């Protein structure tokens, strides 16, 4: 059983030979799972740690048909079965394994997860097994039978399992492998913790047999009065009726499925979503057999020369970068409350924008941020030097991009899709990223495309932005660590920037590290004073960049990274947070806050 819609598969058959062999316009993900009837499979799962993949391969390294996924039990005292989920360790889902068990702190490899659950069939329903995210490769088995695989650690996937479920007791087994590989996205080299496991929630979702599977409902590009969209109906037929209503706007339109999709457009004058008034409307979609309600905001985003326009008006993006790392407990964020703590800190800082780095964050994070009025930069982990000339790597990146846009295309808060972070110039990279940018536009022509670059050269007028990738994006992100990786902080105020492009630029990263509570002179690294000086002088630098339309310094909170071993200072944490992982604000927090509260309002 594959998580793909058969009609669309036929449209795109690529030459790629991997898991992404069959391509489609959008992934088939169910839209808006929060509004669906579902049973949670969260909680304790039994696990078996399997560094040699003993539960998958035999001693000839051939995949076995009686691996751990069979969940076998001894039938008689003489049986030889060298594993037993029932007596194994347990860990929580959602959650990374690294912070739940000491022996898994640095672990990269396979862990088998198993969960028992009960199911009672209802007539005329379909059931999906839906994973919000598993890092990195998942092979999923239901009642001992393989139902599918997924690659990529930060996007959701699903399998329709109606016919595989049994009345009463069932079990699901997932082989999770977070081994880093050179050809993966991200590749072997990354500055954040490679948290393994079923890191986000798992659900059994029920829908009517013929049901609304996906929809797109947003203002048409450039219009504030034309709400446009489409609805797809699984197991539906051409000619099926679809009704879309927005009661608060007194709108109700009818459409009919044609070639698998019901398209519509609604003339309306919605109050536009913006950070100061993040207005969301209830939108209901109805078919003969199904009904679903979402909360959706309407806004436009565009550029004009070096300006970003929200609803036609220039807006300056006062932001901060955020990793999906949990405050206080560290490890992966696993609850709405943790999302809200991070977002509340960004609010206190005076932000109207957040960069969700370096991969798609959970749907919960995006929806909470939208309610709180943050504009969002969302990105895929095309990070540093991935294999730009490898077709499978491209297919993987494109799949993650498609899944990110599929899931979040109705979120007004998202202004920008970012296709890459700090990639090295070169022909293969330019082709790769230009293709990805075009792909993103094909899937969603209403948002801006960006990428974070660190490739500027030294020109006469100072730093010069002329990376050819600038052509492919709408907004240029620049990561630059003046006062930390280059030059001393005092030098930064006078650094000048020029650009070959008449496009908006966002300083997508600036910053420096400090250990909370470490004090000294502003020339002493790792002190709060040093970090504050980095912020002070970088803000002065940014005041002089005419084409700057926003910034998202690095980073809201200290986060774990295995590239950061320095004893007594880093201890496996990247210390560039404005707040420590225990929630303590450093001096630089207040420097940036002052800037945000006093300027560019
Ligand atoms: C960067 C990367 C980010 C790192 C950061 C750092 O340029 O984009 O992922 O964590 O620098 O701290 O070096």
TrEMBL record:
Residues 73-208 form the Glycosyl hydrolases family 2 sugar binding domain. Belongs to the glycosyl hydrolase 2 family. The keyword Signal applies. Keywords: Glycosidase, Hydrolase, Signal. Pfam families: Glyco_hydro_2 (PF00703), Glyco_hydro_2_C (PF02836), Glyco_hydro_2_N (PF02837). Residues 1-21 form the signal peptide. This is Beta-glucuronidase. Its EC number is 3.2.1.31. Residues 304-596 form the Glycoside hydrolase family 2 catalytic domain. It comes from the Bacteria. Residues 210-299 form the Glycoside hydrolase family 2 immunoglobulin-like beta-sandwich domain.
């Amino acid at each position: 059983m594959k998580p793909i819609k058969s009609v669309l598969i036929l449209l795109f058959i690529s030459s790629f030979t991997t898991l992404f062999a069959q391509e489609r316009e959008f992934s088939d993900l169910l839209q808006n799972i929060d509004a669906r009837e579902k049973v949670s499979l969260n909680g304790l799962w039994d696990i078996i740690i399997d560094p040699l993949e003993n539960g998958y391969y035999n001693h000839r390294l051939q995949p076995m048909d009686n691996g751990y996924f069979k969940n076998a039990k001894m039938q008689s005292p003489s049986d030889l079965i060298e594993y037993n989920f029932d007596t194994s360790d347990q860990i929580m889902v959602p959650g990374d394994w690294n912070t739940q068990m000491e022996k898994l702190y640095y672990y990269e490899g396979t862990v088998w997860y198993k969960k028992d659950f009960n199911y009672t069939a209802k007539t005329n329903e379909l059931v999906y097994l839906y994973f919000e995210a598993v890092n990195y490769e998942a092979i999923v088995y239901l009642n001992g039978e393989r139902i599918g695989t997924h690659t990529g650690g930060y996007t959701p996937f699903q399998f329709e399992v109606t016919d595989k479920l049994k009345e009463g007791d069932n079990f699901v087994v997932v082989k999770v492998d977070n081994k880093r590989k050179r050809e993966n996205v991200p590749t072997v080299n990354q500055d954040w913790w490679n948290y393994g496991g079923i890191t986000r929630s798992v659900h059994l979702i029920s829908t009517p047999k013929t049901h609304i599977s996906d929809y797109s409902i947003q203002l048409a590009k450039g219009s504030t009065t034309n709400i446009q969209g489409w609805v797809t109906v699984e197991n539906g037929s051409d000619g099926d009726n679809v009704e879309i209503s927005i009661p608060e706007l007194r709108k109700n339109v009818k459409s009919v499925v044609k070639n698998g999709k019901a398209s519509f457009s609604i003339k309306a004058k919605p109050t536009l979503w913006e950070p100061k008034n993040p207005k969301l409307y209830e939108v209901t979609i109805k078919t003969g057999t199904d009904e679903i309600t979402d909360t959706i905001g309407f806004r436009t985003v565009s550029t004009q020369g070096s300006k970003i326009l929200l609803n036609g008006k220039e807006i300056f993006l006062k932001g901060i970068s955020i990793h999906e790392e949990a405050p206080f407990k560290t490890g992966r964020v696993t609850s709405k409350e943790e999302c809200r703590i991070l977002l509340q800190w960004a609010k206190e800082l005076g932000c109207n924008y957040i960069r969700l780095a370096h991969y798609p964050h959970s749907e919960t994070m995006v929806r909470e941020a939208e309610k709180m009025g943050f504009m969002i930069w969302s990105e895929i982990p095309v990070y540093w030097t991935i294999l730009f000339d490898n077709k499978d790597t491209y297919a993987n990146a494109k799949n993650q991009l498609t899944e990110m846009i599929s899931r979040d295309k109705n979120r007004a808060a998202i202004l920008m899709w970012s296709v890459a972070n700090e990639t090295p110039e070169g022909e293969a990279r330019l082709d790769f990223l230009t293709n990805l940018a075009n792909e993103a536009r094909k899937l969603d022509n209403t948002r801006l495309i960006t990428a974070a670059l660190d490739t500027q050269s030294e020109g006469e007028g100072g730093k010069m932005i002329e990376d050819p990738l600038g052509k492919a994006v709408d907004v240029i992100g620049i990561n630059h660590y003046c006062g930390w990786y280059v030059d001393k902080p005092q030098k930064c105020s006078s650094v000048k920037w020029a650009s070959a492009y008449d496009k908006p630029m966002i300083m997508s990263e600036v910053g420096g590290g400090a250990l909370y509570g470490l004090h000294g002179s502003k020339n002493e690294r790792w002190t709060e004073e040093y970090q504050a000086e980095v912020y002070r002088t970088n803000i002065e630098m940014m005041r002089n960049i005419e084409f700057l339309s926003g910034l998202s310094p690095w980073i809201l909170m200290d986060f774990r990274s295995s590239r950061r071993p320095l004893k007594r200072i880093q201890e496996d944490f990247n210390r560039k947070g404005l707040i420590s992982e225990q929630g303590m604000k450093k001096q630089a927090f207040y420097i940036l806050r002052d800037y945000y509260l006093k300027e560019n309002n």
